[in-house]
């Protein structure tokens, strides 16, 4: 059965999720009002159906998938609830389990908790969409035989996403902050020489990390705070990921950069 799914919003990841749905003949809807030219270009390229405003889109669609910065997740849920949406609401944001529960309270019993692991889904086997909740298997079926591996799990998909990103994005913040620390004390070159001896490949990893995440770091600030909240609620120390959030906050000026960002420029931003 063809589903009409409202995608909030078609950023880099969202566009790939929407494209996967369309490959199974589902209709993907979006709203162009107040969206950036980059977003409009992605939506047009993927032939998403524009209903212009949120009210029109919510009233038209059967279901909603929310993929937005984690700091906006609750606000997005409230906005569709006010319009009277009653379909399946899939929150696929990088949020803590407690934030997911708040969104479930807002959106109602047809809530599905989601967590995406991997890059935008343009390559087979690269991206998993983990889903939990009463309707998780139904939602997973929409993605059968697409580039998105949708997997229904018994327990919190948000907790899985937080646990995974705690290492991947947390370790990225750590290695960049170490490079900044070494620069501050004037021992960057001796450190890199020691890494070459005892930690081969770490220098290259730090450089790859800097160029790979600089333009996306602004999104990771909120995600790190959600991870910190997850640790705290599990009665584990939260401080590491709070510090990681600050590292990414200092890199926010690289947002939207179309050029490769050097480790030198990333260090400069972190130290300023």
As a percent range, the share of helical residues equals 40-55%
Distance between the termini: 54 Å
Count of beta strands: 8
The residue-averaged pLDDT reads: 96
- State the name of the first-level CATH class of the largest domain: Alpha Beta
Write the CATH fold name of the largest domain.
Rossmann fold
The poorly predicted ranges are none
User: Which H/E pattern describes the elements?
Assistant: EHEHEHEHEHEEHEHHHHHH
Largest sheet: 8 strands, mixed
Task: Please give the structural blueprint.
Elements: E1 4-8, H1 12-23, E2 27-30, H2 37-45, E3 49-50, H3 54-60, E4 63-66, H4 73-83, E5 89-91, H5 97-107, E6 111-117, E7 127-132, H6 136-141, E8 148-152, H7 157-184, H8 188-198, H9 202-213, H10 217-233, H11 239-250, H12 263-271
Parallel strand pairs: 1-2, 1-4, 2-3, 4-5, 5-6, 7-8
Antiparallel strand pairs: 6-7
Helix pairs in contact: 4-5, 7-10, 7-11, 7-12, 10-11
């Amino acid at each position: 059965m063809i589903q009409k799914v409202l995608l909030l919003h078609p950023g880099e990841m969202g566009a790939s999720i929407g494209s996967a749905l369309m490959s199974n003949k589902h209709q993907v809807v979006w709203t162009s009002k107040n969206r950036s030219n980059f977003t409009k270009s992605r939506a047009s390229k993927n032939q998403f159906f524009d209903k212009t405003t949120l009210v029109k889109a919510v009233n038209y669609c059967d279901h909603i998938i929310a993929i937005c910065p984690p700091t906006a997740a609750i606000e997005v849920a409230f906005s569709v609830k006010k319009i009277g949406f009653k379909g399946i609401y899939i929150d696929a944001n990088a949020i803590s389990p407690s934030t997911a529960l708040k969104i479930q309270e807002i959106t109602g019993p047809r809530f599905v908790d989601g967590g995406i692991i991997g890059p935008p889904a343009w390559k087979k086997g690269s991206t998993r969409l983990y889903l939990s909740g009463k309707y998780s298997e139904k939602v997973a079926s929409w993605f059968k035989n697409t580039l998105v591996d949708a997997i229904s799990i018994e327990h919190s998909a948000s907790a899985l996403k937080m646990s995974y990103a705690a290492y991947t994005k947390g370790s990225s913040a750590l290695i960049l902050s170490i490079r900044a620390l070494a620069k501050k004390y004037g021992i960057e070159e001796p450190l890199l020489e020691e890494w070459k001896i005892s930690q081969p490949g770490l220098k290259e990893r730090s450089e790859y990390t800097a160029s790979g995440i600089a333009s996306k770091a602004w999104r990771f600030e909120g995600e790190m705070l959600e991870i910190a909240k997850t640790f705290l609620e599990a009665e584990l120390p939260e401080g590491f990921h709070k510090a990681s959030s600050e590292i990414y906050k200092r890199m926010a000026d690289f947002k939207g950069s179309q050029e490769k960002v050097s480790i030198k420029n990333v260090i400069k931003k972190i130290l300023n």
